[in-house]
Amino acid sequence: MPRLKWDQDTERLYEGGVDMCALFVMGQNGYGIGVPWNGLTKIEEKPTGAEITKKYANNKVYAQLQSAEEYEATIEAFTFPNEFYACNGMKAVTAGVFAHQQNRAKFGLVYRSLIGNDTEGFDHGYKYHVVYGALAKPSSQSHDTEDDDTDIDPMSWDISASAPSDTISGFKPAATYTIDSTVVDADALKEFEDLVYGTDPTTGETPTAGTDPAMPMPADLVRIFGTTVNG
């Protein structure tokens, strides 16, 4: 193996940005058809847990126990899709009238963040983040008076997520997965994107019907990208 080198061309990587977020609200029969989340400005992942507890014997550390890790995040946006009302604890009484403090629906998210480097910038690649079983906690929202420095009132939600019952053999249940475009096969990535975002109908000699945006389950990830782990 050659001697280690740092900061080589094309290897100065960084990440930023968030876009192409699709919302999938969970109902009685699983996740519904995906819808775009416009106005999304930030998703801050804040995992909790994984705390270490030390056990001592013979005056030294005998074992280190680590608690389970949980997925939590904060979503910030200028608006949200109509489908998110149910996730926000709001239920329509009639068109345009909503009751608050209702049961909150679970939901899934798929969104993209960008990968940049020193030669291509953010054209280098991107990562997809898949989040399952999310619940939004009540959060504050301010309504400020208009003045000569008027701004848009942002919204935010703290969420926690739980792993689906559909798990990958050889792995612990996971509430979130990440797909790196710079590593996975390009054809497999397109198949994933067509599943998540849907496809348009085509015309011509062999017309095809479009497909609805669908929440990718862990089994879909294994089917599309494969696995190198044997259960």
Radius of gyration: 21 Å
Low-confidence stretches: none
Number of domains: 1
Q: How much β-strand is present in the residues?
A: 35-45%
How helical, in percent, are the residues? under 10%
C-alpha geometry: globular
Count of individual beta strands: 14
Q: What report would you give on this structure?
A:
The protein is mostly beta strands and 231 residues long. The protein has one domain (14-141, 148-225). Helix content is 9%, strand content 41%. The chain has two helices and 14 strands. The chain has helices spanning 186-197, 218-225; strands at 14-27, 30-31, 35-36, 40-45, 48-49, 52-57, 60-66, 69-77, 91-94, 97-99, 107-117, 121-137, 155-161, 176-180. The strands form three sheets. Strands 1, 2, 3, 4, 5, 8, 11, 12, 13 and 14 form a ten-stranded antiparallel beta sheet that branches. A two-stranded antiparallel ribbon has the order 6-7. Strands 9-10 form a two-stranded antiparallel ribbon. A hairpin with a 3-residue loop joins strand 11 and strand 12. Helix 1 packs antiparallel against helix 2 (218-225). The longest helix has 12 residues, at 186-197. The chain is globular and about 65 Å long. The two termini are 31 Å apart.
